Amino acid sequence: MNELVEAFRLVLAPDVMIAILLSSIYGLVIGSLPGLSATMATALLVPVTFYLSPIAAVASIIAASAMAIFSGDIPGCLLRIPGTPASAAYTDEAYAMTRNGQAEVALGAGLWFSALGGVAGTISLVVMAPMLAELALNFSTYEYFWLAFLGLMCATLVARSSPVKAIASMLLGLLVACIGMENPGGVPRFTFGVAELLGGIEPIPALVGVFAVSEVIRAIVSPEPPPLPSRRFGSILAGQLALTRKYWRQMTRGNVVGIIIGVLPGAGADMAAWVSYAMSKRFSKEPKKFGTGHPEGLVEAGASNNASLASGWVPALLFGIPGDTITAIAIGVLYMKGLNPGPTLFTERASSMYALYIIFILANIIMIPLGIVMIRAASSILRAPRATIMPVILVCCAVGAFATGNNLFAIILVAAFGVIGYVMENNGFPVAAMVLGIVMGTMVEQSFVTSLIKSDGSLLPFFERPVSAVLATMTIAALLWPAFIWSWKRLRPRPQEQAL
Amino acid sequence: MRLSDRVTGSFVATLGALATYGGSQLPPVPGQDVGPSVFPMVIGVGLILCGLMIAFGIGHSFEDEAEADLAAVQGPSQEAQPSEPLSYRLRALLPPILLLFYVYAADRIGFVPVAAVMIFISALAFSAKLRVALPLALLAPIVIHLIFYKLLRVPLPPGLLPMPW
Questions:
Q1: What is the pTM (predicted TM-score) of this model?
Q2: ipTM, interface predicted TM-score of the complex
């Protein structure tokens, strides 16, 4: 009980409240601008968190990412351009509703079910995390190795691209993580005599490069999106209760699917939205209405992507394994702030954990009023020309990367990773998988090499402990899954061909 | 910049071979079989396998499906088509070049002038009009400096134009 009171005291501190409010506004604006994703919003926020107290730092990340995922729906609905990848799954549906004159209902559904989904995800975090923490206390390096590997495999499975290319990207990320002296021998590895590389490649410059600079590059070679027609909105939340009553089943299913996908290490909000939208269509009584401006899929997918955001923190807090790219960034901040992820976090720093739960709930509650303001202001914010936003973002990338260690080498890394990210994405190599590889590389190597040393070079003990055997099976299944799908498709002729 | 799978696959495989070779050359830890060379070699072998599979077009069908899904949502790709003039596509190099310019010039002439140049050039590249680009280049660096230097205490180089705060 004392811890709960202490947690409220931590959250209600003025610096934390201001951080939540400002980062919410920041997240709403960045998320709503096409091409600027929630991950990028979070990555550019990191240098700012250096100078905040631990709770304020985590709070700003939670608030900004939740808002950005919601406000990604706004340009999707009004312009048919998703603001964040997590909104891409149902952009068409939302835009069709706008064309039918139901923009308020579509945006309201995005807001209302995002907030409810966020609360559901938080409840799952509160319930699941302590239970799993007890299990995690018994984990040895074998389990950690498989868990990290499973996370990497999930990241490749959910990438909407060729699984081979996704695995290649992930391995590239691991290779990048090999650079530096932090390895079992303590020898300089792949540093090519460059002194700055001895410390390894920090994830933050890589993230800023891959997610922000590559977006600037992409914008510079693509035409400006069409301007937003000015419009006046009616009541945003009117009719949402009726929708909730009508589609409570879909909403619950969306929440549950989102939570499950979020908990899986490596799979995040975009995947949750795609899966939930597809599921909603499959189980719907009126599948033909999908795509013509039918709110059902919107409800389910909107509930799903925000639910996954909160439950993505479960593996991040317990094992230091990111649930998605946003928590990958958050883990870095947790370490920096002395809140090292691990099961002991829940026993030793219980008040901080409670504070985190409270922040999640708070962020999802203030999302509703702030979201309404944002929707009303959207027509003026979305009219800000790219030519004024992108140059400022570029300078912020440079300053942000510089702030991580006060050295200019980080900016060279940002430029390099910007180009790498742009070329990779253009050729179908998913960059999110590479980023997870970079973030998790050191951990995977440490658990792998320590396990090998313990087992005297034998691979058998990797499968002997019960939990590690289960995790190993899941990982290998994830590895073989694409091959299974491919042969299934080969063996079963396509429906169109049958019709011919 | 769209390359064929054969090119990207061969690149990945070559990188894998180099990683394997580079890893194998690392000094071992005395008295222990497993050292710093194991992990890069495992990754290198993985990269070689993936690279070969990509070069031979294995798994390409998944990509087509995902692209079809996305095209259904977003319409045809808005990237510059190969028919665009080379000068248009070369603009892609501008953001990294400007970042390198920052690295080269920031300590010499200071944050505010460098940022102003970066913003001015890139705003023009985004085809902003002069009456937008100039005020933006003059004001935005000062605001960014105020936020990062004063509020967040990032030691941005003062250079030729130190700010009064």
A1: 0.84
A2: 0.90
State how far the Cα of A43 lies from the Cα of A39, in Å rounded to an integer: 6
CA dihedral of B100, B103, B108, B114, whole degrees rounded to 10: 70
A483 vs A356: which has the higher pLDDT? A356
pLDDT tens figures, A182-226: 888 888 889 888 888 888 888 888 888 888 898 889 888 888 777
Give the pLDDT band (50/70/90) at residue A499: very low
Q: Is residue A497 part of a domain?
A: no
pLDDT digits (tens, 9 = 90+) for A375-387: 888 877 777 788 8
How many C-beta atoms lie closer than 10 Å to residue A4's C-beta? Answer: 14
Q: Among A51, A178, A416, whose Cβ lies nearest the Cβ of B153?
A: A51
Q: How far apart are CA A483 and CA B94, in angstroms?
A: 41
Chain A contact for B21 (CB, 8 A cutoff): no
What residue type is assigned to position A160 of the chain?
R
User: What amino acid occupies position A329?
Assistant: I
- Burial of A235 (C-beta count, 10 Å sphere; 0-12/13-18/19+): exposed
Q: Are the Cβ atoms of A163 and B133 closer than 8 angstroms?
A: no
Q: Number of folded domains in chain A?
A: 1
Instruction: Report yes or no: B146 at the A interface, CB cutoff 8 Å.
Output: no
> Is A499 a member of any domain?
no
Report which of residues B29 and B143 the model is more confident about: B143
Please tell me whether residue A282 adopts helix, strand or coil conformation: helix
Amino acid (one-letter) located at A363: A
Q: List B residues 65-124 in contact with A (Cβ-Cβ < 8 A).
A: 66, 69-70, 72-75, 78-80, 84, 88-89, 91-92, 94-96, 98-100, 102-103, 106-107, 111, 115, 118-120, 122-123
Q: Is B101 exposed, middle or buried (0-12, 13-18, 19+ CB in 10 A)?
A: middle
C-alpha to C-alpha distances, B91 to A216, A218, B25, B117, B129, nearest whole angstrom: 11, 10, 40, 16, 17
Report the chain A residue with the minimal C-alpha distance to residue B139: A392
Give A27-42 pLDDT, tens digit per residue. Answer: 998 888 876 778 888 8
Give the range of the structural domain holding residue A378, as residue numbers without chain letter: 2-489
The CA–CA distances, whole Å, from B147 to A334, B151, B165 equal 23, 5, 11
Count of beta carbons in the 10 Å neighbourhood of residue A278: 16
Please report which residue ranges of A80-162 form alpha helices under DSSP H. Answer: 91-99, 103-136, 141-158
- Structural domain contains residue A494: no
- Percentage of chain A exceeding pLDDT 90: 21
Q: Could you tell me if residue A329 is inside a domain?
A: yes
Contacts (Cβ under 8 Å, ≥6 apart) of A346: A129, A130, A133, A317, A353
Q: Hey, is A413 helix, strand or coil?
A: helix
* Residue A101: pLDDT over 70: yes
| Residue A250 vs residues A299, A310, A361, A420: alpha-carbon distances, Å | 7, 19, 22, 40
Contacts B23 to A, Cβ<8 Å: 178, 189
